[in-house]
Write a structure and sequence with these properties.
Helices cover 13% and strands 46% of the residues. It is built from three helices and 13 strands, in the order E-E-H-E-H-E-E-E-E-E-E-E-H-E-E-E. It is globular.
Length: 195
């Protein structure tokens, strides 16, 4: 787990059996397969958050990362980048549990880091109107949507939610289930990737 002021990861020789992956969900599936082969991240929100490739030719940067264990009434998954629960972007509750700062082109959780032992939670107050949501959405690419009185941001190591009505659940950008309950547990330093 990274600590303030410390370097993150180390430069190592490129492993000969390195597997390239281009997305967060693909990375999570590869890490869950536990075949022991090292993996290099070539795309996705984790890739963008760490700044892309940092090695050159014969070297790569080896980075420990946290993993999010996602438990619901609809199944269980592991997430590398983020977990999103919502019915709509424009009304009702919206929850994002972020292990990285990025969700596509959006800087949803500007302070999130994939190896700090915590996840950043961004919750939209269900009472937030369409106009306010539109204004916040316009500011998402630059991360200036926060602070906002109807956007609640906090850092967690574990948390559970129960929703009044079912919400659609996305894990690393893939829609997985419709759920009434959700629990996310941060597993510090649970995986190693290369860039």
């Amino acid at each position: 787990m990274i600590r303030k002021g410390e370097d993150w990861g180390e430069v190592v020789a490129t492993p000969p059996d390195l597997v390239d992956v281009t997305g967060d969900a693909v990375l999570a599936a590869h890490l869950g397969a536990a075949d022991g082969r090292p993996v290099r991240v070539r795309g996705g929100d984790l890739f963008t958050s760490v700044g892309g490739p940092t090695g050159g030719g014969s070297t790569v940067r080896r980075l420990p990362i946290d993993v999010l264990r996602v438990e619901t009434d609809g199944g269980e998954w592991r997430a590398i980048a983020h977990v999103v629960a919502r019915r709509s972007w424009w009304r009702g509750p919206l929850l994002a549990v972020m292990n990285v700062d990025r969700l596509g082109a959006w800087d949803v959780a500007p302070r999130a880091h994939p190896d700090d032992g915590r996840a950043d939670v961004v919750e939209v107050d269900p009472a937030m109107g369409v106009r306010e949501r539109w204004q916040a959405r316009r500011r998402l690419p630059s991360g200036t949507h926060v602070p906002h009185p109807r956007l609640h941001v906090r850092r967690i190591t574990e948390e559970a939610w129960t929703f009044d009505r079912p919400l659609r659940l996305w894990v690393d950008g893939v829609e997985r289930a419709t759920v009434r309950s959700l629990r996310v547990v941060v597993e510090p330093d649970a995986a190693v990737v290369h860039c």
